[in-house]
What we know:
The protein is of the alpha/beta class. The protein is built from seven helices and six strands, in the order βαββαβαβαβααα.
Amino acid sequence: MGSSLNQPEFDYLFKLLxxxxxxxGKSSLLLSFTSDTFEDMSPTIGVDFKVKYVDVGGKKLKLAxxxxxxxxxxxxxxxxxxxGAQGVIMVYDVTxxxxxxxxxxxxxxxxxxxxxxxxxxxxxxxxxxDKESDRVVTKKExxxxxxxxxxxxxxxxxxxxxxxxxCFEELVLKILDTPSLLAEGxxxxxxxxxxxxxxxxxxxxxxxx
Length: 209
C-alpha cells in the first residue's frame, strides 16, 4: 500500500495529548518521560510536541505526545489537537486545589467536546506528590473523580520521576487493549499525523486547523 521506501520501524503510532492548567507540570512530566531529566519549565506557548519510541506489551510503539498550553488565551489553539488522539492525559497539581477543580469545570468538558475518538483513553494524573506537606487534594478525591469520568488514575512526581514511566505505560497498555484505537494507530495515522501543522513557537502565527 504505502511506498516500500520507508517501512515503519514501529507497530503502532499513538497520538497522546496532555492537558490541564498552566503550571501543573505537564511539560516537566513530558520531559521526565522522554529524556529522563527534570526541569522547572516555563509555561508552554501554544503547543509543544515530542516523540518517544517504546516497547510495551511486546509491541514497538511510536508515541507522538502533544503538550498543550494551559492558559486561557491559548485555549482556541488546542481544540484541533484533540483530533485523532487515542489518549488524553489530564494533569493537576496536588498542591493547588483550583487545578483540580478546573478538571471538571474546563478540561473534562473539552475532551467531550473536541475528542474525535469516542473510545479515547483518559488518564488522570496528580503531579507534584514530592511536595507531600503542601498537598491539598487527597488521593481519595483523585480516585473518586477518575471513577466519575471513567479515567485511569495515577499520582506522580516529575521531579523525582516517581510513577512517570508507569503513567504513560498504563495509558498505552489500555490503548493496546482497545480494538478501535488500535485500528486507528495502525493505519492512516502513520501517514497523516505529521501533516497536522506543527505548532509555531509564536502563538500569533499558530494555525488552529
